[in-house]
Amino acid sequence: MQPVHVIGGGLAGSEAAWQIARRGIPVVLHEMRPVRGTAAHKTEDLAELVCSNSFRSDDADHNAVGLLHDELRRSGSLIMSCADDHQVPAGGALAVDRDGFAAAVSAALAAHPLITIEREEITALPPEDWDSVIIATGPLTSPALSEAVLQATGEDALAFFDAIAPIIHFDSIDFDTAWFQSRYDKVGPGGTGKDYINCPMDKAQYDAFIDALIEGPKADFKEWETNTPYFDGCLPIEVMAERGRETLRHGPMKPMGLTNAHKPDEKPYAVVQLRQDNALGTLYNMVGFQTKLKHGAQLEIFRMIPGLEDAVFARLGGLHRNTFLNSPKLLDGTLRLKARPALRFAGQITGCEGYVESASIGCLTGLFAASERLGRTLPPPPPTSAMGALLGHITGGHILRDEPGPGSFQPMNVNFGLFPPIETPKADAEGRRYKGKEKSKAKKAALTRRGRADFADWMTAHVPPATAE
Ligand SMILES: Cc1cc2nc3c(=O)[nH]c(=O)nc-3n(C[C@H](O)[C@H](O)[C@H](O)COP(=O)(O)OP(=O)(O)OC[C@H]3O[C@@H](n4cnc5c(N)ncnc54)[C@H](O)[C@@H]3O)c2cc1C
Predict the structure, then answer these.
(1) What is the location of CATH 2.40.30.260 in the chain?
(2) In terms of Cα–Cα distance, which of 45, 64, 62, 18 is closest to 386?
(3) Of 35, 203, 347, 358, which is most buried, counting CB atoms within 10 Å of its CB?
(4) At residue 343, what are phi and psi to the nearest 5 degrees?
(5) Which residue, by CA, sits nearest to atom 3 of ligand 1?
């Protein structure tokens, strides 16, 4: 049997290689370290964790990443079994001894009889006779391969600043203050005239907000980020605020063409706009609010915005170098490059974010490639599961727009906003009505219950069993 080639032995590539080999299919895993390093990796271990040692919450009942842990464990994941074996105390989170963890992943892959590890940088697109390839080279993909992928995809950007604006859960916005309206009520192609959520500010609120932005603590640029070009359309809001107190009011916070639906006679001094971020309509992003403010400061400052006092953030803003594809446009539902289906992509390069998310997309890509080699068709996991919801974000759930800079698709951690909505249970099994925070806990429990059941059905019905461990 011809091998599947996996390029990049990080979180995604290691998991993909494992899932393929345990189904009796040979794998060649190409990892460039230590021949060539990256700006963040320090060792030659496979699945090295470049920063924090946390896999985040391990609560599979109330947390979306906890549900991913559960689905990975059910899939026989190498990343999760090594994480479990090298766990360190971290409250409700799953944190690991990073050296023990990466050494265990490296040893398991090296010991598998069907896996060959080649230490080499792949600098060009793979030759045509590699008929099944997974590219899992991560956010720090080497420049030569980035260039080759750019040429294959025909896109004009692949490696750039990942300028991200915060994303907010729709149901945490206060509509006694905010209202729906497009600027000048423009319907546009495909709009309704009420496509944006607007949050008004008077002069005193605007002044206090600008002061907070200018004074707020900012994250420093890492040294490897300094050579990456800025997109002018993606300047951080605090940089704009520093350029002049009125800059934001004439930029992303301009009040023109908007009438406060609650106080039609009061002209807002400035307006913050939010735009639908996913097809489900459960998430909204803050338009033009990319920022390098520290996360704690973002929570404090953005909750000063009228209507967002209780906002729950699905993702906070940030700027760092990242390499990722415009996946909703370029990849099909099983992560194949539409223009060259022998190539699949996995991990952060597909537009997910985080260790666990990258391992999960690695797991899925491995399962898709293995099924194909075995002559089977594996449908994507159900959108109600955590892996299905994440895959949906990457390959279809996001609304694509033509905008300056890298485009509107941005990497994301898994979160409940990516899941199809569910009716919130009103009372517990004894008929006692949920109050306050109990309601949101009950909703999360209902989402994870549904996801677990659907994922288990999908595994049983479609995923080829492991035969070679
Ligand atoms: C500086 C930084 C800090 C981060 N901190 C966190 C954090 O704290 N928590 C978190 O959850 N996520 C964090 N992330 C995101 C994290 O990188 C990803 O979540 C995860 O490591 C991505 O997994 P991956 O498998 O896609 O890529 P990686 O784990 O980066 O693996 C990619 C592998 O491909 C190899 N490679 C690259 N190019 C080539 C080539 N041409 N040929 C052969 N091999 C190649 C690399 O050496 C690497 O081993 C951080 C990312 C960066 C850049």
Answers:
(1) 164-318
(2) 64
(3) 347
(4) -100, 125
(5) 51
Pocket flag, ligand 1, residue 139 (CB < 6 Å) = yes
Give the three-class secondary structure for 301. Answer: helix
Q: How far is the CA of 140 from the centre of ligand 1 (A)?
A: 6
Candidate of 65, 320, 348 to mutate for ligand 1, largest count of ligand atoms within 8 Å of Cβ: 348
Instruction: Tell me if 10 is assigned to a ligand binding site.
Output: yes
Q: How many CB atoms lie within 10 A of CB 436?
A: 7
Q: What is the pLDDT of residue 285?
A: 87
Ranges of CATH 3.50.50.60 domains, the chain: 4-158+324-462
Is 134 a pocket residue for ligand 1 (Cβ < 6 Å)? no
DSSP for 402-447 reads --STT-S---B---GGGSPP-PPP-B-TT-PBP-THHHHHHHHHHH
Fold assignment, 164-318: Elongation Factor Tu (Ef-tu); domain 3 (2.40.30)
Determine if ligand 1 sits within 6 Å of the CB of residue 138: yes
- Going by C-alpha positions, the residue among 315, 279, 344 that lies closest to residue 414 is 315
Q: Give the ipTM of the model, two decimals please.
A: 0.99
Q: Which fold has domain 4-158+324-462?
A: FAD/NAD(P)-binding domain (3.50.50)
Atom 14 of ligand 1: nearest residue by CA position: 354
State the distance from the centre of ligand 1 to the C-alpha of 388, rounded, in angstroms: 22
Q: pLDDT band for position 233 (50/70/90)?
A: low
Q: Pick the atom of ligand 1 nearest to 41's CA.
A: 47
How remote is the CA of residue 31 from the centroid of ligand 1, in Å?
Answer: 12
In sequence order, the 6+-apart residues with CB closer than 8 A to the CB of 52 are: none
Q: How far is CA 465 from CA 178, 292, 371, in A?
A: 51, 45, 10
Largest CA distance in the chain: 74
Q: Between the CA atoms of 280, 286, 287 and 291, what dihedral angle is there, to the nearest 10 degrees?
A: -130
Render pLDDT for 272-316 as a digit per residue (tens, 0 to 9). Answer: 999 887 778 888 989 889 888 999 999 999 999 999 999 999 989
Q: Which of 128, 139, 141 is nearest to 161 (CA)?
A: 139
Residues 127-175 pLDDT 10s: 999 999 999 999 989 989 988 988 888 766 565 556 678 989 999 999 9
